[in-house]
Design goal:
mainly alpha
């Protein structure tokens, strides 16, 4: 592996960081809100599935109990 001196490394890092496109505040807020909305929808979906499975299993077990 080739050795790079620290100054060259720092110059390369700065060059790469300058290529990064940072999101705007609006983009960050919108994506954050979307994450919370999708997390809430996912939680509601899996809660509903859990309730349905639990009810089904309780119904089946009631037949044998």
């Amino acid at each position: 592996m080739a050795k790079t001196n620290p100054i060259t490394f720092i110059q390369q890092v700065r060059a790469e960081v300058s290529k990064v496109v940072w999101p705007t505040r609006r983009e960050v807020v919108l994506t954050t809100v979307m994450v919370f909305i999708l997390a809430a929808l996912t939680a509601a979906f899996f809660s509903l599935v859990d309730i349905l499975i639990r009810s089904g299993l309780q119904g089946i077990l009631a037949l044998f109990g």
